[in-house]
Amino acid sequence: MEPILKVEHVDKAFGGVIAAENVSFEILPGQIMGLIGPNGAGKTTTLNLISGIYSCDKGEIYINGKNVTKLPAHTRARMGLARTFQSPRFLQRSSIRENLMLGLDLADQIGYISSFFGKKRSDFDTELSELMGMAGFTVNWDADIQSLPYGQRKLLEIVRALLTHPKIMLVDEPAAGLNSKELMRVLEMLQFAAKKGVGIVVIEHQMDFVMGISDFVTVLNFGKLLSQGTPEQVSSDPAVIEAYLGRDIDAEN
Amino acid sequence: MKTKKITGGKITLFLACAAFAVGIPAICNPYQMTVVNSALIYFVAALGISIMLGMCGQMSFAAISFMGMGAYCATQLSKTLGMPTLMALVLSAVFTALMSLWIGALLFRLSGGYFTFATIGLVYICSSLFLNLKPLTGGANGIVGIPDLNLFGYNLDSLYKWFFFLFAVCILCGLFVERIRRTSLGRSMASVRDNELAAKSLGVNCYQVKIISFVIAGTLAGLAGGLIAFHNGTVSTALFSFQIATNFVIMVMLGGVNSTVGTFLGTFLVTLMPEVLSPLADYLRLIQGVLIILMMIFMPTGLAGIGQMLLSKAQKRLANKFSKKKTASQEVGQ
Ligand SMILES: Nc1ncnc2c1ncn2[C@@H]1O[C@H](COP(=O)(O)OP(=O)(O)OP(=O)(O)O)[C@@H](O)[C@H]1O
Ligand SMILES: [Mg+2]
């Protein structure tokens, strides 16, 4: 099988700070990769490089075999790359409905003009209710996004990403600030996506969660690849334990 | 998920429009009609600013330049080249659409405040060109004797006829803007305004969306320019100064930056204020300035925000009355 996402020898520096150095990995469709490392290790930067928010200083990124290193973020998104943010990003002044619909028409290649004349995605409602069933709560679609509790906003961001029918999903710390019930919901949704063939990168500090969900794990430290392998291999790797400074890595979250 | 509802707000709006269409010609003398008509024309251009600033979050002063281009273009096409006036009006809107596409593609290489300053530059360049390209614009003297607008054989030769035509144009433009708000383009614009990072990550081409909003605004301004040329029968550079450009922004800010009804109210407020306050003409700017500051402090959503507040209060009161009646009748039933 061809990898759906390939990151090859990617570098990124901010002034003197090296945020990513020679980072490489590949993900097959349906695979979940955990991306871990101490604070400031360059995990979010790596996601930003993949999604095109930052440009790489060096190295190449391939989506579905196509070199996207020079393509802008929105083009990569339309190629099937969806992401969530470390702290959820919504349009504060738009309703929940509008927030979820944003970008859907674009993901479906429905142009602005056909949308103006009333063209919509036909299965939006059924799909949304299926996803909301997994998310495990209901909302008033016309309410403000700010009226939702933090955990629900994080779940809703995953729903929004899934609605775009992604091929790759980049998920930045989905578990942070969630209760254990909501955590189960995240797990369920990511596994649902993986089963459908979505390749997933998930950054997470909560070790039980990330070790439980990942097919393999990549560890970054000071922007460099420290270790890569199955959850078992990685958590017994002395270099990884060293990087977490001998702390019980489960304790960090 | 979405059902078409006829809400109290919509009914109120419809009745208000009807009352406006019937009432204004009934109570206004010809001079007042001129003022009302120009307010309607300014509304078309102000809608463009409402799209740019309210929906897309981009502050632009360029409307006045495109209005000027539209006005001179319509004038030249009809008066000099003898083209049918309606065709000249449409072509001048097309011309400004192309100009705004070109200028927008250039200026949106800049971001945020730099873009805004660049549009101020554009206003200066254009007013200088309007003044100095005498063969096209008539220079400081302007051009007189522009023919009446003719709609398929129907001549708009009175202010009252103009009023109805302009009001219809305003309603169409307003509906157009409201439609945009509710479709994919409106959502993309809102995302550019509120969170470019989220927008990009969801596939929104922010640069393209900004240009689209600029072109829509430019086209509306160009249309307004053509309309004002035919309506007044004359054009001159005074109509397209930086002073008027700031007026547009004030109209939209006072009215409610992201509201079509608010923009309408703001346009009338700003256009009528000099007339109503003519005894205080020397202090007009002072009054406007204080009003803007007070509004931004106490009601940043503008007149539209006040209107919405009153409307929802009234609805609540009605609902309360209704439920009281219900409980009363239930008590009787017991
Ligand atoms: N836009 C930026 N400008 C300057 N420095 C940046 C920028 N983005 C990230 N950095 C720096 O790059 C390094 C890596 O940051 P990054 O956010 O990728 O870390 P992280 O692994 O996601 O950490 P955390 O677990 O705290 O989220 C940090 O030193 C950070 O300060
Ligand atoms: Mg991070």
Task: Tell me briefly what this model is.
Chain A has helices at residues 43-51, 73-78, 96-101, 104-107, 112-116, 124-135, 150-163, 180-195, 207-213, 231-235, 238-243, and strands spanning 5-14, 17-27, 32-36, 58-63, 66-67, 81-83, 168-172, 199-203, 216-221, 224-229. By secondary structure, chain A is α/β, with parallel strands linked by helices. In chain B, strands 1-2 form a two-stranded antiparallel ribbon.
Explain what you see.
The complex is a heterodimer of chains A (253) and B (334). Chain A has a single domain (5-252), classed as P-loop containing nucleotide triphosphate hydrolases (Rossmann fold). Chain A is 36% helix and 23% strand. Chain A has eleven helices and ten strands. Chain A has a six-stranded mixed beta sheet with strand order 6-7-8-3-9-10, sandwiched between helices. In chain A, strands 2-1-4-5 form a four-stranded antiparallel beta sheet, with helices on one face. In chain A, helix 6 (124-135) packs antiparallel against helix 7 and helix 7 packs parallel to helix 8 (180-195). The longest helix of chain A has 16 residues, at 180-195. The model of chain A has no long low-confidence stretch (mean pLDDT 87). Chain B has 334 residues and is mostly helical. In chain B, helix 2 (30-55) packs across helix 11 and helix 3 (63-80) crosses helix 10. Chain B has a domain at 33-241. The longest helix of chain B has 32 residues, at 302-333. At the A-B interface, helix 2, helix 3, helix 4, helix 5 and helix 6 of A face helix 8 and helix 9 of B. Bound molecules: adenosine-5'-triphosphate (ATP) and magnesium ion (MG). Residues 43-44, 86 of chain A line the site of magnesium ion.
